[in-house]
């Protein structure tokens, strides 16, 4: 039962709700388990931004995007550092740097497809809106198959970003999609590996780059990190880390669109089963001493789905996905932001416009109205506070509770905060609670979790809550973290930090809490 620090009215509602909820006991794990993760990067929750739309998200030196700047600052306040930024995506493979060009020139088809992006020095001003502590992953054109284009883009990035801020260079976007397009149909992972070795070696030597500066892979479906390692991609010493892309669902064709539902998406078993398929790739990267990252991902490819990925449900999906990825030693997750690209699929559902899965809509549009954060932004606040800033925290998913398989509980050990036992606990209740659910339906999916076994006598246990009026809500102002919403990039409302009563916390369906011991 919870006692929020606000009014007696809120207290009485919490008491009534807790009495109706199912009470659960968690398995006690006091010592850090052997299968706890590697130390978590405070930048676990990072961003990929479609190359040709970076100027919309970032603005420029004279007119920076204020919404983006404020949202990034909310993350820095909690993590101590800014998230990684990867300008990339499909439009990178038709990009051309020209020192005499303006920020960017888009060559588009009659249907709105971008088939070339010419960009100049002013394009880099868009990166200025992101924190100085945000490393940049520089993706360059491989699709055009002209090494001079990649060389010019790397050289420009070094000049305008600075080598000390660049996390890695990446050759192309999703090369497993090249066959039948920019490459012959028979072009394979062996061909990619050979080209990667040749290009990365030449570019390192030609531009006097430090060794191990390239992020290899970046494939999404049919190839794997394990395969390119077996094919010798490590042989020339240019690989810094490995990346693959993931999209759990899709609107790229009618068959996949039919199963891209809110119910399927917000399902703990579906999330963990899908991400677990990447465990062999993580292990392959670690076997050669390298990090593995998900260099681009989101919930539903081909730009998301209306009333699915623009809901509060996306926040729950993000929280469970990113924390589970951290528990399986994925170093960083780069959430993709952008717009519908008509060249992605001839069968896709979405028309041109910013993606339904974006964490924020950077500029006013007819489709979305005013620039604002999406309901899912609050998930990033939960995640960065759960991970912490110490760079020593480790995470583990606690064993599932048979009576409630949609309850996901993550324990975080952080020696900088607590010497024994978990320092923080994330409880996500993925059971469905809709905005229209009756009180009886809400009571049926609520749970009360007994935390007494985790509490020491000297603990001052606090709770922050990620909530909204329902899973299906698209109202950004209704999506809150610790009682505050972030529609305009700044906190609106009074912060609510809750205390435990009798050592228990109640979590409604479609809600999450972060417990601080």
From TrEMBL:
Superkingdom to which the source organism belongs: Eukaryota
Keyword DNA repair included in the entry's annotation: no
A Pfam family assignment: Glyco_hydro_79C
Presence of the UniProt keyword Transmembrane in the record: no
Domain (Beta-glucuronidase C-terminal): residue spans on this chain: 410-514
Stored InterPro entries: GH (IPR017853), GH79_Enzymes (IPR052974), GlcAase_C (IPR031728)
Keyword list, A-Z: Signal
Signal peptide: 1-20
TM spans (from-to): none
Identification of the protein by name: Beta-glucuronidase C-terminal domain-containing protein
